[in-house]
């Protein structure tokens, strides 16, 4: 993966380097007014393209089960363009939640993640930020860039995201999907990731808290 390649590049220059996730120091932002007072988890439902986004109805069913099991508050994060997607999850799940999509700066977003018990999202910067602030996370992963950015290899130190995926023989397609699918929906490898598999990964992390 990229972390290992970067380390190897530096080693080739005679610089001592290991494939390690850097720890992001607290930026000291006052986010008390943004986050819940109680324990909470984060859903990050967006991605750079709809083809990489797990379906809204699955996120909704997933959050119902996590709230039922943990009693944690739900926070949804993302960009301004993902506000309505987040609202759809809230509506479908029937769970009272805080929708922060488009309402935080990047430093504030990082601190929101730092304070969370758990983050679940698609393959975006959110899961990588979670790793830098030592927040457990689950990444719903497609095969477009499989192995380049995710999953994290065993050689990488720190709190690594758990990648959940449904392997197909077309992995590594660079997101040029060769399978028939609706261009307005996620690609088949993302659609093949089941709610149960995501729930199982989340439960594993919850037990470790």
Description:
There is one protein chain. With 209 residues, this protein is α/β, with parallel strands linked by helices. The chain has one domain: Glycogen Phosphorylase B (Rossmann fold). Helices cover 34% and strands 11% of the residues. The chain has 7 helices and 6 strands; from the N terminus they run αβαβαβαβαββαα. It has helices at 2-12, 56-70, 83-93, 106-115, 125-132, 188-191, 195-207; strands at residues 40-44, 73-76, 97-99, 118-122, 137-140, 162-164. A 6-stranded parallel beta sheet has the order 3-2-1-4-5-6, sandwiched between helices. Strand 1, helix 2 and strand 2 form a beta-alpha-beta unit. Helix 2 (56-70) crosses helix 3 and helix 2 packs parallel to helix 7 (195-207). It is globular. The model has no long low-confidence stretch (mean pLDDT 91). GO terms for molecular function: ADP-heptose-lipopolysaccharide heptosyltransferase activity. Keywords: Glycosyltransferase, Transferase. One of its GO terms (cellular component) is cytosol. This is Glycosyltransferase family 9 protein. It comes from Desulfosarcina ovata subsp. sediminis.
Query: Number of helix segments?
Result: 7
**Uncertain segments:** none
Give me the strand/helix succession. HEHEHEHEHEEHH
The Rg value, from CA coordinates, equals 17 Å
In the residues, how many domains can be counted? 1
Structural class, from secondary structure content?
alpha/beta
Terminal residue distance: 27 Å
CATH topology: Rossmann fold
CATH architecture: 3-Layer(aba) Sandwich
Strand order of the largest sheet: 3-2-1-4-5-6
Give the beta-strand count: 6
Q: What summary fits the major beta sheet?
A: 6 strands, parallel
In CATH, what is the homologous superfamily?
Glycogen Phosphorylase B
């Amino acid at each position: 993966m990229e972390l290992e390649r970067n380390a190897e590049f530096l080693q080739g220059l005679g610089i001592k380097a290991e494939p390690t996730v850097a720890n992001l120091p607290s930026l000291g932002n006052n986010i008390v007014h943004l986050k819940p007072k109680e324990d909470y988890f984060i859903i990050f439902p967006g991605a750079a393209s709809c083809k990489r986004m797990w379906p809204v109805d699955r996120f909704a069913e997933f959050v119902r089960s996590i709230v039922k099991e943990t009693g944690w508050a739900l926070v949804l994060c993302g960009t301004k363009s993902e506000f309505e997607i987040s609202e759809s999850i809230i509506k479908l799940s029937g769970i009272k939640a805080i929708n922060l999509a488009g309402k935080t700066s990047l430093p504030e977003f990082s601190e929101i993640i730092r304070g969370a018990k758990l983050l679940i999202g698609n393959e975006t910067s959110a899961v990588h930020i979670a790793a830098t602030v030592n927040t457990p996370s689950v990444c719903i992963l497609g095969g477009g860039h499989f192995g380049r950015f995710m999953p994290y290899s065993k050689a990488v130190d720190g709190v690594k995201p758990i990648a959940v995926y449904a392997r197909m023989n077309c992995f590594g397609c660079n997101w040029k999907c060769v399978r028939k699918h609706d261009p307005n929906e996620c690609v088949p490898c993302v659609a093949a990731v089941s709610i149960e598999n995501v729930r199982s990964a989340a439960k594993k992390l919850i037990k470790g808290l």
